[in-house]
Amino acid sequence: MVGRTEYQNVSGTRCATDFVELPSILMEHFLNSPAVLSLFDIKGNEPLVAGNHHEDPCHSIDTHTQILLAALDQIYHSPAALSPDFNSTAALAKLYETRGLIPYVPGTSWQTQFGHLFGYGATYYSYLFDRAIASRIWRKLFAHDPLNRETGERYKNEILKYGGGKDPWEMVGTLLDAPETRHGDAEAMAEVGRWKVEDEVSMPGRH
């Protein structure tokens, strides 16, 4: 709706896998903001109660599981998978036994039915990657005043209108005034890793 690209099918909503989830993940931060929730009226003149009181109590466990799946995805697409004796279930069991919170259940192989591990082509980590970027954008630009129109326009003009028509590293680096990320190299990846993922429960204004 706000795109300004000439060819939508090759540049509009078609963007890098590790960038495509950024807008929706950022919106999750807005949906947990008391300032934003106070705009909604669902019971006559009563404002919507601030905060999501039905959030997942196992949010941290879910994040840990996402990290394990990202690690498993990388293993399945590593040179180790070329070995004749490579066993995807054994690799899963070893990862969960050494780094997991919940032990692997012998005799199961659920990974064979989890399409993301082969359909994403070693980019399943990208969801966590986008969560780190979205958290950074929220903290630096929106957390203190999520209803600021000028900031919203800046986000639209720097990120949303280009879609896949511009290098996402350049867009994020410009928006966050982080020149160290604009080249998209190993240092840029490491920098995003240092940003980490901020859970919604620790956002300003939450109780």
Descriptive overview:
By secondary structure, the chain is mainly alpha-helical. The chain has a domain at 59-119. 48% of the residues lie in helices and 2% in strands. The protein contains 10 helices and 2 strands. It has helices at residues 8-12, 22-30, 34-37, 59-76, 88-99, 116-119, 126-142, 149-160, 168-175, 186-195; strands at 41-43, 46-47. The protein has a two-stranded antiparallel ribbon with strand order 1-2. Strand 1 and strand 2 form a beta hairpin. Helix 8 packs antiparallel against helix 9 (168-175). The protein is globular, with a radius of gyration of 20 Å.
Topology:
Blueprint: H1 8-12, H2 22-30, H3 34-37, E1 41-43, E2 46-47, H4 59-76, H5 88-99, H6 116-119, H7 126-142, H8 149-160, H9 168-175, H10 186-195
Antiparallel strand pairs: 1-2
Helix pairs in contact: 2-7, 4-5, 8-9
Percentage of β-strand residues: under 5%
Number of strands: 2
Question: Major sheet, described briefly?
Answer: 2 strands, antiparallel
Q: Give the overall silhouette.
A: globular
Biggest sheet: strand arrangement: 1-2
Element-by-element helix/strand order: HHHEEHHHHHHH
Provide the structure class: mainly alpha
In angstroms, what separates the terminal alpha carbons? 35 Å
DSSP summary: helix tally: 10
Rg measurement, Å: 20 Å
Query: Considering DSSP H and I runs of 4 or more, what fraction of the residues is helical?
Result: 40-55%
Low-confidence stretches: 200-207
User: Mean of residue pLDDT?
Assistant: 83
